[in-house]
C-alpha cells in the first residue's frame, strides 16, 4: 500500500501526512495477532483517516494552517477502536479546511484530485479519504459528514460512503465543526467493507455526551436479509430542476433495478426540502463560529509571533491562520447569533429544522427507505466553483436534509455520466443502518454491469 501511495500520490494528493513507520509497526503487530484464529476482522487492513480525527503523536491539521503543527496528545475514540481491531493506519487525508466545503479545494495546503479525471475535484470535504479509497491508496477510510462530506465525495469518486445516525458513532476527538450535525462515517470500496467498518466504530462512548446508548447490530450479517417487499420512497423534490440530466438518467435506471430486486418504489413528498440549504447555512455556521472561537493563537495552534498585545495576537493569528471560506462561515454564524438577529435567523432556522425532521418522520410512516441521487452533478472541474460559494453549497443540496433530521444515509456507486461516477443515496429512519446496508448491498449485487463502463486515470 505504501508503494502504491509513493507511486501515485504526487498526482492525486490524497494525503496530508503519511505515517509509514507507525503503519509498519502496526502491521508487524497485526502479523502476530493473525497467527490466532480469532484475530479481529480488520486485523492488518491498511486504512486512512481524515485529518479531522485526532491522532496521538501524529499531526492533525483539520486542513487548516491554524492547526498546521498541532500534535494531539490523545486518539479520537474511533481511532482507538480501529487500533483495537488491529487496523493499520497509513496516514491522514486531505480535506476542506475545518470540513467546510464540497471539493477539497478549501484545504489550507493543496487541493486533491479525482482519480477518475485528475482535472476534476474529488468532492468534499472528505475528498482526500474518498480519493485515497478510489485510487487504491488504502483499503478503506474514515471521513466526517456534517452536511454531506462523506456521501458526496464517495459519490464523486465512485466509492461507498455512509453517514451513520447522529450519536451512533462517538465524536470524541473529532475536531468540531457543527456539533449538532457532525458524524464520522466509513468510505469504502463496497458495501460489505462499509458494514465491517461500521461494526468497528459504532457504539456508546462515555466521552461523547451525545452518543447513543443503543445496542450495535451485526451489520455484516444484516447484508444478506431479503429486500423483497421493502418500500422505497422517491421524493419528487429531489428529482426536480437542478439535477443534471445525465445524473437523473443514471439514477432512474438504478431505481428500476431496485424494482427488479423486489423493492416497491413509492412516490413521496418532503415538502420542506427547499428550505434545507438555508437552514443548514444558518445552523452550521452558527455552531462553527462558537466552536472555532478556541483558535486564538493563545494555547495551541498557529500564532503570529510579531503581535503586540493579546488583542492583536488574536486578530493576527486568526487573520492569517484561517482561510477565506472559514472566515465567511464565522462571519455568517456570528451574524446569525448576534443580538437583534438571533430570533430572525438562528431561532427560526431551529424551527424549520423541526419541520424538515417532521417531513422525514411522516414519510417513514409509509416507507422503509428513501432513495435519491447523492449529488445533483458528477465531479466538476477544479476551479469551477471556488469563487461561487452558493453554487458550491448547492452540491450538497441532497445530502443536507438528512443531517438536519439526524437520520443515516449511504451513497453507493450506480453508474456513470460523462465517464464519471454517479452515486445513489438511500436514507433511513434513525438507527436504520441495517436496512440501508441491506438495500445498498442488494443494489450493488445487481449493478455489477454499470460499474464497469469507465476507467480511472490512475
Ligand atoms: N459542503 C458542506 C459544507 O460546506 C458540508 C460539509 C460537511 O459535511 N462537512 O458545510
Number of helices: 15
Order of helices and strands: HEHEHEHEHEEHHEHEHHHHEHHEEH
Mean pLDDT: 96
Oligomeric form of this entry? single chain
CATH class of the largest domain: Alpha Beta
- The CATH architecture assignment of the largest domain turns out to be Alpha-Beta Complex
The hetero compounds bound to this protein are:
glutamine
Approximate shape = globular
The strand count comes to 11
Task: Characterise the protein shown here.
By secondary structure, the protein is an alpha/beta fold. The protein folds into two domains: 2-272 and 356-455, Alpha-Beta Complex (Amidase signature (AS) enzymes), CATH 3.90.1300.10; 273-355, no CATH class. The chain has 15 helices and eleven strands. It has helices at residues 2-12, 20-33, 77-84, 127-134, 151-157, 191-201, 219-222, 245-260, 276-291, 310-321, 324-337, 343-366, 389-393, 401-405, 433-446, and strands spanning 15-18, 46-50, 88-93, 140-145, 160-163, 183-188, 231-235, 264-268, 369-373, 409-417, 420-427. Strands 1-3-2-4-6-5-10-11-9-7-8 form an eleven-stranded mixed beta sheet, with helices on both faces. Strand 7, helix 8 (245-260) and strand 8 form a beta-alpha-beta unit. Helix 6 (191-201) runs antiparallel to helix 15. The radius of gyration is 21 Å and the shape is globular. The site of glutamine has 13 residues, from loops.
Amino acid at each position: 500500500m505504501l508503494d502504491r501511495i509513493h507511486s501515485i500520490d504526487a498526482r492525486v494528493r490524497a494525503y496530508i501526512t503519511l505515517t509509514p513507520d507507525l503503519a509498519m509497526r502496526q502491521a508487524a503487530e497485526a502479523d502476530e495477532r493473525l497467527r490466532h484464529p480469532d484475530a479481529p476482522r480488520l486485523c492488518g487492513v491498511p486504512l486512512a483517516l481524515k485529518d479531522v480525527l485526532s491522532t496521538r503523536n501524529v499531526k492533525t491539521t483539520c486542513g487548516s494552517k491554524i492547526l498546521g503543527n498541532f500534535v494531539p496528545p490523545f486518539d479520537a475514540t474511533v481511532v482507538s477502536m480501529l487500533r483495537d481491531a488491529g487496523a493499520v493506519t497509513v496516514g491522514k487525508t486531505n480535506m476542506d479546511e475545518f470540513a467546510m466545503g464540497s471539493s477539497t479545494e478549501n484545504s489550507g495546503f493543496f487541493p486533491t484530485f479525482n482519480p477518475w479525471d485528475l482535472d476534476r475535484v474529488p468532492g468534499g470535504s472528505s475528498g482526500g479519504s474518498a480519493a485515497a479509497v478510489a485510487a487504491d491508496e488504502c483499503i478503506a477510510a474514515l471521513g466526517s459528514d456534517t452536511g454531506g462530506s462523506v456521501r458526496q465525495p464517495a459519490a464523486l469518486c465512485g466509492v461507498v460512503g455512509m453517514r451513520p445516525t447522529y450519536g451512533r458513532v462517538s465524536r470524541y476527538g473529532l475536531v468540531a465543526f457543527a456539533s449538532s450535525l457532525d458524524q464520522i462515517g466509513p468510505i469504502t470500496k463496497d458495501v460489505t467493507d462499509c458494514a465491517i467498518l461500521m461494526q468497528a466504530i459504532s457504539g456508546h462512548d462515555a466521552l461523547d455526551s451525545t452518543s447513543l446508548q443503543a445496542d450495535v447490530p451485526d451489520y455484516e450479517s444484516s447484508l444478506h436479509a431479503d429486500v423483497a417487499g421493502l418500500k422505497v420512497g422517491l421524493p419528487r423534490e429531489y428529482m426536480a430542476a437542478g439535477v443534471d440530466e445525465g445524473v437523473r438518467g443514471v439514477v432512474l435506471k438504478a431505481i428500476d433495478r431496485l424494482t427488479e430486486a423486489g423493492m416497491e418504489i413509492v412516490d413521496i413528498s418532503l415538502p420542506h426540502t427547499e428550505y434545507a440549504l438555508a437552514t443548514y447555512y444558518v445552523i452550521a455556521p452558527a455552531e462553527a463560529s462558537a466552536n472555532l472561537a478556541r483558535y486564538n493563537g493563545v494555547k495551541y495552534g498557529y500564532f503570529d509571533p510579531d503581535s503586540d498585545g493579546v488583542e492583536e495576537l488574536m486578530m493576527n493569528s486568526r487573520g492569517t491562520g484561517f482561510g477565506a471560506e472559514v472566515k465567511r462561515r464565522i462571519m455568517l454564524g456570528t451574524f446569525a447569533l448576534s443580538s437583534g438577529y438571533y430570533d430572525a435567523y438562528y431561532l427560526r432556522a431551529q424551527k424549520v429544522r423541526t419541520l424538515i425532521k417532521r417531513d422525514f418522520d411522516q414519510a417513514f410512516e409509509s416507507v422503509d427507505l428513501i432513495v435519491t441521487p447523492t449529488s445533483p452533478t458528477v465531479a466538476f472541474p477544479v476551479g469551477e466553483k471556488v469563487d461561487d460559494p452558493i453554487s458550491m453549497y448547492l452540491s450538497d443540496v441532497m445530502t443536507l436534509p438528512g443531517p438536519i433530521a439526524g437520520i443515516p444515509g449511504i451513497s453507493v456507486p450506480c453508474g456513470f455520466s460523462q465517464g464519471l461516477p454517479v452515486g445513489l443515496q438511500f436514507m433511513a429512519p434513525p438507527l436504520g443502518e441495517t436496512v440501508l446496508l441491506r438495500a445498498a448491498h442488494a443494489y450493488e449485487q445487481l449493478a455489477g454491469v454499470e460499474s464497469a463502463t469507465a476507467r480511472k486515470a490512475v
